[in-house]
Amino acid sequence: MIDVLLFIIALVWLIFASASDLKTREVPDWLSYSLIIIGFGNALLKSLILGDIKFLFYSLAAFSLVFLFSALLYYTKQWGGGDVKLIAGLVTLFPVYPEELLNYFGPNLDIPFILILFLNIIIFGALYSIVYGIYLLIKNKIDFLNEIKKYDIKKIYLISPLVTLIISIFTKDLFLKLFLLSIGILILITPMLTVFVKIVEKKCMFKKIPVKKLTEGDWINKNIYYKNKLIYNKNSPGITKLQIVLIKKTKLKDVIVKEGVPFIPSFLIAFLISIIIGNLFKI
User: Fold this and answer.
1) Residue 36's Cα: distance from chain center in Å?
2) How many Cβ atoms from other residues are within 10 Å of residue 129's Cβ?
3) 224 pairs with which residues across the strands?
4) pTM, whole model, 2 decimals?
5) Contact at 8 Å (CB) between 82 and 21?
6) DSSP letter string over 9-25?
7) Residue 256: phi, psi to the nearest 5?
8) Hey, what's the torsion of the CAs at 253, 83, 241, 221, to 10 degrees?
9) Rounded Cα gap, residues 232 and 223, in angstroms
10) Which residues have CB under 8 Å from 173's CB, separation 6+?
11) CA dist., res. 24 & res. 12, Å (int)
């Protein structure tokens, strides 16, 4: 029953983290750190009781690999610090699929579980971002069709997929037909999605807030100096607690920050899909 209990803990923690992320754009550190502690604690106990170091090794390996990759997303401003720590905690808890849950679900586990989880996070994270972007456009009453006219989408992006789709019609080989159709659709939607992201970011994701309301990890859109010394670089992944203290000493009353997409709900969806269905693409 240990795996079932760990699954319930992870689920409750993700629901709580999702609610916090949507409401405050922050994820309490205790949620992530407690998952990491529980994950390593469980792995250590299994290794000691069963006399097999592999359980602890799996958790250490999963934590290290995912933390490094997630940190890359953090430093490129794709994820916030809370996202990185929470996903690290999740894979520490479940470096492999929990065997007891196979009594309840029949997932496709043809590739390692952490890879399944990460792929599903990418897939549902992308879908969630699009839906959330549409929500922001509607909420802020942005005329998307009028905004898109300001961007120059080259005709080649419309002609190329059309040619590819026409060629696929006359192709008899099913694999080649599907490949050409996929390429055509990808070429068609990529520039559209790029413009969509730019419009949402420009029109909906920047806001002015009082300096006193700055929190660790906020992204400020300009360099800030104190006594002629640079104390915050706009290209940094997020503001630190020390920088907040220094900024409060300046004459600034307000700053413009970029709000990130609250990604944790997509983690919750991806986790459930990974546990119940597994890999969405059979190999």
Assistant:
1) 18
2) 17
3) 232
4) 0.76
5) yes
6) HHHHHHHHHHHHHHHHS
7) -100, 125
8) -40
9) 6
10) none
11) 18
